[in-house]
Amino acid sequence: MGNKKFAAKNVTGWKATVAISMANYIEAGSIIAAASSLTLWQTYLGFDSLGVGLLGALSANALGAAIGALIGGPLTDKYGRKLIFSYDLMVYMIGVALIAVSVSFPMLLIGTIITGIAVGAGVPVSWTYIAEESPKEKRAAHVGAAQLAWSIGPMITFALAVIVAPLGLLGSRLIFAHLLIIAAIALYIRRGLPESKIWEEQKAKDDADKANGIVKKGILKELFTLKPNREALFLLLGIYLFWNLTAGAMGYFMPYIYENVGGLSNMQANLLQSFLWMFTVLTTFFIFMKIGDKMSRKTLFTIGAAMGVVAWVILTFMPMTWPTLISFVILWGSAAGIGAQAFYALWTSELFPTRYRATAQGLMYFIVRTGIALWSIALPVIMDTLTFVVAGIVMMSFLVIHLVIGVLMAPNTRGKTLTEIEEERYGHIVEDDRSFLEKTN
Question: Which of 108, 130, 129, 126 minimizes the C-alpha distance to 118?
Answer without folding.
Answer: 126
